[in-house]
């Protein structure tokens, strides 16, 4: 029973450490599937809005 508890504790620690890696992996997938285009369009829209109001 003690080994099972140790294994569970080990996986919990690994999940906490891989939180940043999981987020970066999701962000990289977002960029690969066209997210970069969305980001460019949002920035372009903000620039146009600022130039129109200014």
Q: Figure out the total of helices.
A: 2
Quickly give the structural class. mainly alpha
| Overall domain count | 1
Distance between the termini: 69 Å
The main pleated sheet reads as: none
What's the order of the H and E elements? Answer: HH
What does this structure look like?
With 54 residues, the protein is mainly alpha-helical. It has one domain (2-53). It is 94% helix and 0% strand. It contains 2 helices and no strands. It has helices at residues 2-17, 19-53. The longest helix is centred in the middle third of the chain and has 35 residues, at 19-53.
Short summary:
The protein is mainly α and 54 residues long.
Fill in the keyword field for this structure:
mainly alpha, 54 residues
Task: Note the topology.
Blueprint: H1 2-17, H2 19-53
